C-alpha cells in the first residue's frame, strides 16, 4: 500500500486537503495505472487517441489533514463491452481503510485527429481496460 505524500501547498485555509487536490491526485493515480497497461502518452500520440472526461464528481466524507496517511484505490466501476465508455472510481482511504472521499469519473476515448469519439478504440485500450482493477460490483453496460 502506497500512502500519498501531501504537501503544505495542498491544504486550504482550514488546514485540510484543498478540494481540487483530490481531483489532481485521482488523475495522477489513473494515469499511472493506464501507463502500467501500455496506455501511455507515447502510444496515444502514435495512435492519435486520448482520454476525454464527461463527468468528474467527488463525495467528501472525512477531512484529510497534512499528517493523514491516505492511499487511493482506483478501480473500473462500469465499461461498455467495446471499452468506448467507462466509469472509474477512486476511493481515498485512511490506513484504517475508512473512506475519506469517493471520486467517480466518466469518460471515453477521442480520436485526436478527427476530434470525435474513437470507434473502435485502439486494441491497446481494450486490452488495458480489460486488465484494469475492477470493483466488486463491476458490470459491463
From TrEMBL:
It holds the Pfam family 4HBT_2. It comes from the Bacteria. The keyword Hydrolase applies. Keywords: Hydrolase. One of its GO terms (molecular function) is hydrolase activity. This is Acyl-CoA thioester hydrolase.
